[in-house]
Amino acid sequence: MGLNAMRLPEDVRKLTITQLEQLAKELRQTIIETTARSGGHIGASLGTVELTLALHRVYNTPHDKLVWDIGHQAYAHKLLTGRLNSFSTIRQLGGISGFLKRRESPFDTWEAGHASTSLSAALGMATARDLTGQDYRVVAVIGDGALTAGMAWEALNQIGHLKTPMVVVVNDNSMSIAPNVGAFSRYLTDLRSAPAYHRLKQEVEGLLDGIPVFGSPIKRTVERLKDLVHFAMVAGNVFEELGFHYFGPVDGHSFDDLIPVLAHARDVQEPVVIHVITQKGKGYRPAEENPGVFHGPGPFEIDSGRFIKSSDAPSYSQVFSETLIQLAEKQSNIVAITAAMPDGTKLDKFAQAYPDRFFDVGIAEQHAATFAAGLALSGMRPVFAVYSTFLQRAYDQLVHDVCHQDLPVVFAVDRAGLVGSDGATHQGVFDVSFLRAIPNLEIAMGKDDAELRGLLAGALERPHPVAVRYPRGSGKGHSLSDPIMPIPWGRAEWSHQGKDLTLITFGPIYYTALAARDILESRGYSVGLVNARFVKPLDVDLLGKVAAKSALLMTVEEHVVAGGFGSAVNEWADGSHIATPIRNEGLPDEFIDHGPVSYFLNLYGLDTDGLVRKAESWITEMKTLAALRER
Ligand SMILES: Cc1ncc(C[n+]2csc(CCOP(=O)(O)OP(=O)(O)O)c2C)c(N)n1
Asked: Phi, psi (5° rounding) for residue 14?
């Protein structure tokens, strides 16, 4: 029975091992073909195909709760749970999400996108079950990368304490996006090859060799497994010390290994960790050979594994990293930090140039911020490159450890703005609001890549913490060998004067406003333009002059309006008794789903046409009102 012909996932529970293996092939083929067309998290999802089938076979989903960490590895789960026909729309506008969504399916018990939340959520579900006398089982799947985060350990700590019956599957492929790092990652590697656990594995294999199909022999298998489990427990490991039963390591691509262990663990009335070994990219050679690059690529050619590139200009992340390398040449106390994103932030290049001055701390944004604070108060100039969305996790560390002590840490806030196909959990559209509230922190965003370079250099001279934002994608293709253009700190650029209305922009949306201004001028309006560059300190001197010359002020940002750049302008105007009317253009107070950035900019009137429309109608409205008043 093929994938198309099945009632899923019920039918998975009836299949033989050979049929499951056939189904795994079909799932892989579908994942490869679809991600080749539209990009996506192919590597992690190819690695969990057998695990997904085995989980749906052993557990009575959706009655039993299956909780995936992040959700990027769950494409096979999506295909098995009602989204086979819509799978071709994944990550596209109006299509299904690249992560799990409760509104998409009752099998999606938990929504994420950020790492390391699954264990806390699963414990919540299991605790609610026990308090309300229900009977569902709870199983969480967490990667070895996600297991480097403090949050995961906070949950393990409580699960082991409460002794709540639930299963934690550790999906160990020894990769985060890049190779996993840290002492715990090394520990997992040791655990994989420890002789005691090897013996368990071999014995399970030996035991299962003689079993042709599943059915009654499984009972005997389980009995035997109990002995083996006991054997494994005697060996002792960190999970056992925390109060879990530890089963493993288990070959995550072998149904013969996976199914009996999962089935046994399911019925243990205490917390269990199953340590499953998988290969990222399994079944697609380019992804197996290059798992980092194939973590979440854009479209690619299946045969060659070559990427279909969209832009030749260096990305903002590249510009950031290359500039930091140049600055680090002259300033030996500059150090760079990433939380498991050396590729995405392009700090991998910095790591090659300065291996001793580069730190990948794992998925540990909170630690990264406080680690940077310690470095900064000891004479170093740390730069923590972090996506806007992941900086959210380090908020108390920002406030309490960095800004409260006014330590000169530079936060290179990458992917600031809309991000596109990763959708709601990844949009970088809140950071200005949450950063702006913190004393001592300075916040800047240039209009293009040349300004990013200048702002980064300037930030590293400041005696305060600074957040320098830049978006996903490429800038204007500014040459990286040109000298870095210095930017007067705290100064905006009043590029065009205008009497009817002035557009005050923050970030690269300046160029959209510039195009809008050209159109408005061609229609006879006098429109000014300001590139604000700084939210904090806000260039109030310049804004005061602009307000005196222009009848209307319109702030423009690719960020939520609530508390954003425009709010900073409003607060200044209110406090300084500026009478010039101000309107704030930006994103609405809602989570924005996946889809092309250009689509959402158009939808919210933040593209050229939208800004022209908004500015023109406001100018006309105000002129009409003024004319009426004069009559
Ligand atoms: C808090 C947070 N930081 C960073 C990321 C970016 N990220 C997405 S997947 C991933 C690697 C996860 O590794 P692992 O849990 O081992 O899963 P795998 O992809 O190897 O299956 C990272 C760092 C994230 N999603 N959330």
From this structure: -105, -5
Alpha helices in 306-394 (DSSP H): 316-330, 347-353, 365-376, 388-391
Residue whose CA is at the smallest distance from ligand 1 atom 21? 44
Query: pLDDT of 392-437, one tens digit each?
Result: 999 999 999 999 999 999 999 999 999 999 999 999 999 999 999 9
Ligand 1 geometric centre to CA of 580 (Å)? 47
The crossing angle, in degrees rounded to 10, of helices 49-58 and 255-266 is 40
- Work out the end-to-end distance of the chain between its first and last CA atoms, rounded to an integer number of angstroms: 81
Q: Structural domains in the chain?
A: 41-67+114-289 (3.40.50.970), 316-469 (3.40.50.970), 493-630 (3.40.50.920)
How many Å lie between the centroid of ligand 1 and the Cα of residue 375?
A: 25
Cis ω before 9 (30° cut-off from 0): yes
Render 11-38 in DSSP notation, one character per residue. Answer: GGGG--HHHHHHHHHHHHHHHHHHHHHH
Contact 172, 278 (CB under 8 A): yes
C-beta 146 within 6 A of ligand 1? yes
Q: Which of 46, 175, 176 to mutate to test the pocket of ligand 1 (most atoms within 8 A of CB)?
A: 176
State pTM to two decimals. 0.93
Q: How close is the Cα of 487 to the center of ligand 1, in Å? A: 35
d(CA 338, CA 384): 6
CB 33 within 8 A of CB 56: no
| CB distance 337 to 370 below 8 Å | no
Residue 607 near ligand 1, beta carbon < 6 Å: no
Higher pLDDT, 168 or 222: 168
Query: Residue 472 CA to chain centroid, in angstroms?
Result: 12
Please confirm, yes or no, whether 393 is among the known catalytic residues: yes
